[in-house]
Amino acid sequence: MAASKVLTGARVVLPTGIVDGGRVIVDGTRIADTGTGTGTGTAPADAETYDVSGHWLVPGFVDLHNHGGGGASFSGSADDVLTAVRTHRAHGTTTLVASTVTDDMDVLTRQAGLLSELAEQGEIAGVHFEGPFISPCRKGAHSEALLRHPDPAEVRKLLDAARGHAKMVTLATELPGGLDSVRLLAEHGVIAAVGHTDATYEQTVEAIDAGATVATHLFNAMPALGHRAPGPIAALLEDERVTVELINDGVHLHQAALELAFHHAGAARVAFITDAMDAAGSGDGRYLLGPLEVEVTDGVARLVEGDSIAGSTLTLDRAFKRAVTVDGLPVQDVVAALSANPARLLGLDDRIGSLEAGKDADLVLLDEEFTLKGVLRRGEWVVGPHLG
Prior knowledge:
CATH class of the largest domain: Alpha Beta
Order of helices and strands: EEEEEEEEHEHEHEHEHEHEHEEEEHHEEE
Family: Belongs to the metallo-dependent hydrolases superfamily. NagA family.
Protein name: N-acetylglucosamine-6-phosphate deacetylase
Keywords: Carbohydrate metabolism, Hydrolase, Metal-binding
Domain Amidohydrolase-related: 57-382
Number of helices: 9
Strand content: 25-35%
Organism: Streptomyces similanensis
């Protein structure tokens, strides 16, 4: 059982606003009180007390779209998956959905079985299938030879293999079977995400009406916004039913594109993701993304053949810091994009995504420059706290 803890003096970001000199009480694995009078209010006598004055306390980060880290992939063994999970936890991601990449269906179903076991153990929050049901015109770092149309029967095969732990499937919904597959996913409570798509504006509207609710890494791997042919970007930004993923690493998006997305979608409809591959938290070098070789130079991952950007080396603590210090976004909007919004999409907002009494004690401690100084997951310190 995790020891009780009291964290005092921080700027605490709550759903109702920012509290200066706030206090958070953690009792075991849950938040007991946030100093607002809505919880139990009293710390146990034997609680560990931490003076975190001069720091920020924010909810643990939730990553919807992540392929690996620490030199390991979610397409690998159970040990590989745990290495990647622990790498991202050390950067504040206390809840993570493991993303696969395009491969043979037999390989994907086997991997779905392995990942579902880890989901049952509480190590990951579920599985995201990115591919193989995507457009060869917008394949990015996916093997074109392994792509296929989104046949609902094959989509169902992946869902069955994941044993109730499939959380999201990325589709090029304009392909044959695309709309029927979106409807199938919606019926099963699985997020249908529009991505790696060559769809028109009108086709994307159809997909949203059929039940698609997420834009996979908006702007990337889809037609650019045009004034006569607005394409999927306009349809995804304008519809209140859609949450847009953004990779805020300074490589995938120009700052103006990020600002455009926040302006049109609003802070409640943005989810920052990493789209991380093995090299996140690991360094430059040669890696594999599915069956494809990737070269990482100065933190930028590109395919060895074709030079396409191949995921990222991003961690969500870096996305947070950039959003505030470079992009100039309000801290509360960034917290929404990193925690509350993805938690809501996953249907987990009764347990995670905000600092409220009764929720899991998942907290991130940041200094005044928004550098990570501590990570608490379910009441246990994963990192720190580093208060010196």
